[in-house]
Amino acid sequence: MTSVIIDFIRSTACKKAVDPFAGKGDLLKHVSVLLEICDQENDGIPYGYDIDHALCRANVWGINDSLKHIPTHNNEWLCVTNPPYLSSHTAKAKKLVDSDCYFEDNPEESDLYMIGIKRCLETFDNVIGIIPETYLLSKKFQDRLVLVNIIEENPFDDTDFPVLVACWNKEATNDFKVYKNNELVGWWNDLQKQIPTPRKSQIEIKFNQKAGKLGLIGIDSSSETNKIRFCNASEIKAEIKVSSRNLTRIEITPMPKDLSHLINISNRILEEMRIATQDVVLAAFKGNRKDGVRRRRLDFAIAKKIILKALEKHGQDELDMLFHEHGGIVYNKAVRYKRLPTGCRTIRRAFHNYKF
Ligand SMILES: C[S@@+](CC[C@H](N)C(=O)[O-])C[C@H]1O[C@@H](n2cnc3c(N)ncnc32)[C@H](O)[C@@H]1O
């Protein structure tokens, strides 16, 4: 338990803790010691629930299917849990039919942990959950979210899922704090603003195009020096499929003249965004880098925004260059591109991208 989470627990003024997916009770032990609640009278209400009868017998938990319903508790109880993680996709692929009933009852949820958190939030005013970091980008159950603390060091022996600790209270919130390894990164709404917001544009950006000239290495490798980056498509040797996500080629129409300049600007924008957000706006990828930092994946939606922003900058750079070549003619509003010397395609394109 880090100080950020301890402060949250104290702020709830809860006196008792319960884990609806209690397992061996490891989480409860931490919180109980912290709140000195181990010996408190609990009116016969168990501190934990589980669906596994043997675990319930061994730990005196209540037998309960907490993905379906959690018994009512008053506001003295803090819910602290790490529910089971299983995506509907994996369940289908591995034919794990036991989970079918939960996904059928909750068609809007794509993972068991989401169903678990939903049940906890329905039942308790204050909830702490250790859940996959993908939750952060899911935009779900954020209307009571107070903070998340991303933990880079894997706290579990049996899974390598990147995880975070999320804390919800009973009041509505419209923003929440993001911590990483117990250090404040910022407020989520401010961090979102660091993702480039390009102007509306007619430029077409298509991913997974075999003949695309711009390449993207979309996932950090385990080495610090080989990070997500835009590159020349010739560097992308992998076969390009509709489903490609890690390595891809991108087609831009119209294609800018100076591709290497565009690559440089795109990588600069990407790097600035990564530094300003400490990577938290990028999807977490399984397995940390060798230096312990979490690997990240750049999704196509953000990649597209970066490219469009870079094209704006690229267009501006072309104009600056032409300004020098043509003695200021480009900046003269009276001289519209139609009246520029024919064959001056670069200027036409620059005008196309440039807003006066
Ligand atoms: C990740 S473990 C939780 C470990 C526990 N929080 C601890 O600190 O030791 C998930 C637990 O959820 C239990 N579980 C799975 N499905 C359940 C369900 N539908 N209702 C209640 N418990 C469930 C499993 O038996 C397992 O013990």
User: Which residues sit in consecutive blocks of at least 5 with pLDDT less than 50?
Assistant: 330-344
Helix content: 25-40%
CATH class of the largest domain: Alpha Beta
Q: How is the biggest beta sheet arranged?
A: 7 strands, mixed
Structural class: alpha/beta
Q: Based on Cα principal axes, name the global outline.
A: elongated
What's the number of domains?
A: 3
Q: What ions, cofactors and ligands are bound?
A: S-adenosylmethionine
Q: Judging by the overall fold, what is the CATH architecture of the largest domain? A: 3-Layer(aba) Sandwich
Mean pLDDT: 87
According to DSSP, the number of beta strands is 15
Order of helices and strands: HEHEHEEHHHEHEEEEHEEEEHEEHH
Largest beta sheet: strand ordering: 1-4-5-7-6-8-9
- CATH superfamily (homologous) name of the largest domain: Vaccinia Virus protein VP39
CATH fold naming of the largest domain: Rossmann fold
Radius of gyration: 26 Å
User: How many helical elements?
Assistant: 11
Q: What fraction of the residues are assigned to beta strands by DSSP?
A: 15-25%
Distance between the termini: 54 Å
